[in-house]
Amino acid sequence: MSAPILRKLTDLRAATAGWKRAGESIGVVPTMGALHDGHLSLVAAAKAACDRVVVTIFVNPKQFNSPEDLAKYPRTEEADAAKLAPYGVDAIYVPDPDQIYPEGFATTVSVSGLTDVMEGACRPGHFDGVATVVAKLFLQTAADRAYFGEKDYQQMMLVTRMAQDLDIPITVIGCPTVREPSGLAMSSRNMRLSADGLERAGRLYPVMQQVAERLAAGASFGDLAPAAREALGAAGFGDIEYFDLRAADSLRALDRPTESARLLVAAWLDGVRLIDNIAVPQLND
Ligand code: AMP
User: Fold this and answer.
1) Which terminus in the chain has less CB density within 10 A, N or C?
2) Element holding 198 (H helix, E strand)
C-alpha cells in the first residue's frame, strides 16, 4: 500500500506524536527525490531497524550553487511514491517550501572545519544549505535514527557532527554506496548522461580501485595521482575539481593510508558533475 504523502509540518507532527506515544522508534531517510536503488537501500536499512520510517523529499534551494542546476534537478514525485510502495514506509514527507523556509526565515546552520575542503571549498554555501535543511528535518521528524549514504561521504560526516554539536537526539547511520554493474555510483545526476557518457563514467570506479590497491601496497598518493588523473582525462573527464586521499574521520589530507582513509573525487563529464569515494585499506605499521 502506498504511504500517505504529507505536505504540512502539522500533519507530520500529528503522525510522529502518535508513534512516540506508542513507544515506537522512528527512522528518517532525507532525500531530494528522483529515487534510485541507492536511496532505496537506505529505506531498506531504516525499515529493518525502526518501527516507523519517514522518507523526506525536498529539493532544497539553499544547497544549490546555481539557479540552472536547481531548475534542472529532476522532480518525479509520482514515480518516487511508486518506488517506495513495496517498502511499506509510514509517511512520505514532501514539505511545501514554506514548511521549511517560512516567511522571514533567517537562521543558518554552519559547520566549520570538515566543510573547509573538497565539496565545501568547491561549492560555496552548499554545506550551510545542507546543514540547515537537515537540522530542520531532524527536528521536524523527531526521528531516532537517520540514514545517509556513504556516496556523499563529507555530507555524512557533516550531519553527524551537526547533530552532535546541537544535541539533536538522533543517530546518523551511514550506508554503503550502491553502484551500477559498471561500478558507477548511482546518482540522480547520472540521468543527464548520454549512453556513451554513462559508459565512460564507468571508468571512474576502476581507476579509484586501482589507486586504492596501490596505496595498500605501499605507494604514495603523490606518485599515483598524476597517472590516475591522466586515465580519467582519457576517459573524457574534464575538470577534476578534487582527487584526494584523506583521513576517514578528520578529512586531513594524507599521502599514505597510515590510518583509516578514503579516496574522494569530484569531476565533470559531459557537463555533469560526478562525485564518488571509496575506503582505502590501512597500511600495517
Ligand atoms: P540525494 O537525494 O541525492 O540528496 O541523496 C539522498 C541520500 O541518498 C543521501 O544520504 C545520499 O548520500 C544517498 N545516496 C545517493 N546516492 C546513493 C548511492 N548510490 N548509494 C547509497 N546512498 C546514496
Assistant:
1) C
2) helix 195-201
Model confidence pLDDT, tens digit, residues 50-81: 999 999 999 999 999 999 989 989 999 999 99
CA angle 155, 3, 186 (to 5 degrees): 35
Residue 38's identity, in one-letter code, is: G
The answer to whether residues 52 and 141 touch, using CB atoms and an 8 Å cutoff, is no
CA 277/CA 243 separation, integer angstroms: 9
Is 36 known as a binding-site position? yes
Q: How much distance in Å is there from the Cα of 154 to the middle of ligand 1?
A: 12
Q: What is the mean pLDDT of the chain?
A: 97
Mutation test residue for ligand 1: of 29, 36, 39, 180, the one with most atoms within 8 Å of CB: 39
Q: Is the CB of 149 under 6 A from ligand 1?
A: yes
Q: CB of 27 closer than 6 A to ligand 1? A: no
| Residues 6+ away with beta carbon under 8 Å from 176 | 41, 150
- CA–CA gap between residue 236 and residue 108 (Å, rounded): 38
Total number of residues shown for the chain? 285
